[in-house]
Amino acid sequence: MPKVLVIVPFPMDADNLAKRQAQMKAVRLGPDIAFDFKPVAIAPANYVSQQDALLADVGILEAGLTAQADGYDAVCIDTVSDSGMNALRSMLDIPVIGPGRHAMLTALMLGDKFSVVCMWDRWRPLYTKTLAELGLEGKCASIRSADLQPNNQELLGGREDEVFPVLHQVALRCVEEDRADVIVLGSTTMHEAHAYLAERLPVPVINPGPLSYRLADAAIRLRLSHSKTTYPTPLTPRAQAIAAMGAAARAQ
């Protein structure tokens, strides 16, 4: 049976990890593929600075470094920042799926322009970076924020009555004022709002986490992976040094 490793970008306990695993309920994948969720040991408190981005890359790289040797057939990264994706692709031959870029690319299969709806405006650089890398600035109708500080551990639990209507109004402005044909949720931490928004908006709403699981499944079955021309293997891999960073973080 194929196995997929889902790397969760923050250390967390079992209860909060279950909130991440709940994303699996949004996609039907059948009984013949397994998904394991693994929190990182190295992580920033949030993703709002260049230091945070560096720590996120290192933490996700360390968490996924042995995925192929451990028998996994693909890796999904549980953050729309796609942190660590490029580095892991250079170290692994199995598919490594980042939900941010794949959500944007999928949006262009469904419409001409998309908008990103996020919780917090301080996340904006995450999206502008990916848009620039993909050359899709002209296809992004807007990036709009609900201006609500997120909780990376508890997600939206207990705040539904406060958060969901605000996100709906923000997304509606993207459609009505910015002419977005598709809405992309700006974080996997927002997955609990997907059903609410999808039922109330006149355009498709992409839930990046579940999309990445479906794409990993497709990549495995089609025997596709990233190009080693784009993501070459290091001439001098430093897997032991990276693993030592993780061991040091876990010992603290």
Strand order of the largest sheet: 2-1-3-4
Number of domains: 2
* Global Rg: 18 Å
Q: Roughly how many Å apart are the termini?
A: 36 Å
Number of strands: 8
Mean pLDDT: 94
Uncertain runs are none
**With helices defined by DSSP (H or I, 4 residues minimum), what is the helix count?**
9
- Write the CATH fold name of the largest domain: Rossmann fold
Please give the share of residues in helix. Answer: 40-55%
Residue fraction in strands? 5-15%
Give the second-level CATH assignment, the architecture of the largest domain.
3-Layer(aba) Sandwich
Helix and strand element order = EHEHEHEHEHEHEHEHH
* Morphology: globular
GO molecular function: amino-acid racemase activity
Protein name: Hydrogenase expression protein HupH
InterPro entries: Asp/Glu/hydantoin_racemase, Asp/Glu_race, Hydantoin_racemase-like, Iso_Racemase_Enz_sf
Pfam family, one: Asp_Glu_race
Task: Provide a quick synopsis of the model.
The protein has 252 residues and is α/β, with parallel strands linked by helices. Helix content is 42%, strand content 14%.
Produce the secondary structure layout:
Layout: E1 3-8, H1 14-21, E2 34-39, H2 50-64, E3 74-77, H3 85-91, E4 96-97, H4 99-110, E5 114-118, H5 124-134, E6 140-145, H6 160-176, E7 182-185, H7 194-200, E8 205-206, H8 208-222, H9 239-251
Helix pairs in contact: 2-9, 4-8
If you had to describe this structure to a student in words, what would you say it looks like?
InterPro entries: Asp/Glu/hydantoin_racemase, Asp/Glu_race, Hydantoin_racemase-like, Iso_Racemase_Enz_sf. Belongs to the HyuE racemase family. The chain has 252 residues and is an alpha/beta fold. The chain has 2 domains: 3-98 and 210-251, Rossmann fold (3-Layer(aba) Sandwich); 100-208, Rossmann fold, CATH 3.40.50. It is 42% helix and 14% strand. Strands 2-1-3-4 form a 4-stranded parallel sheet, with helices on both faces. A 4-stranded parallel sheet has the order 6-5-7-8, sandwiched between helices. Strand 1, helix 1 and strand 2 form a beta-alpha-beta unit. Helix 2 (50-64) crosses helix 9 (239-251). The N and C termini lie far apart (36 Å).
